[in-house]
Amino acid sequence: MIPRLGEPVVPGVNYKERVGAYAILPRDDLVLITHQAEPLPEFQLPGGAVDCGETLLAALHREVLEETGWRIRVDRMLCSYMRYTYLPEYEFWARKVCHVFLALPVRKVGPPEEKFHSAHWAPAELAVELFDSPGDKAVLRTFGSIGNAKYFSVCERNRRKPVARRRRR
């Protein structure tokens, strides 16, 4: 069963299901977060809705690029949760099924493509305080510590170890 975070279900409201992919993007002792200025100013984990026919990972790559200007390498999925909320930019109520991944920002290719978005580096503790979404807060509180520099330096060393090959005679 997927946990529900945030506001309770409002009786009598018709919720539209929205599946989304989001990322914790650590670098050194900071995380990359996005600020959406409109329709309501809000700091968020980068990510968003999966379009029809799109996979979770394709949506994650696209959304992070649109909202931050960064290309990423996905490490692994961390968790899933659902949230019932009103989406003012779309003017409907949604049952959001959020899938959160741990990923590395690997290359900045430009500014955020999505209107009203800006990318910011922040310590995880500050990002938790800046987030409005109870889901973003809970996920970063739970998993933010695995995104530290020591964790990733170990992962990188292990992943990039050359494999010794025997020479054939």
What would you note in describing this structure?
The protein is of the alpha+beta class. The protein has a single domain (17-159), classed as Nucleoside Triphosphate Pyrophosphohydrolase. It is 24% helix and 38% strand. It has four helices and eight strands. It has helices at 56-68, 124-130, 134-143, 149-159, and strands at residues 16-24, 26-27, 30-36, 42-44, 47-49, 70-87, 92-108, 117-122. The strands form two sheets. The protein has a four-stranded mixed beta sheet with strand order 5-1-7-6. A hairpin with a 2-residue loop joins strand 2 (26-27) and strand 3. The protein is globular. The termini are far apart. Residues 149-166 have low confidence and may be disordered.
Helix-strand layout with pairing:
Elements: E1 16-24, E2 26-27, E3 30-36, E4 42-44, E5 47-49, H1 56-68, E6 70-87, E7 92-108, E8 117-122, H2 124-130, H3 134-143, H4 149-159
Parallel strand pairs: 1-7
Antiparallel strand pairs: 1-5, 2-3, 3-4, 3-8, 6-7
Helix pairs in contact: 2-3
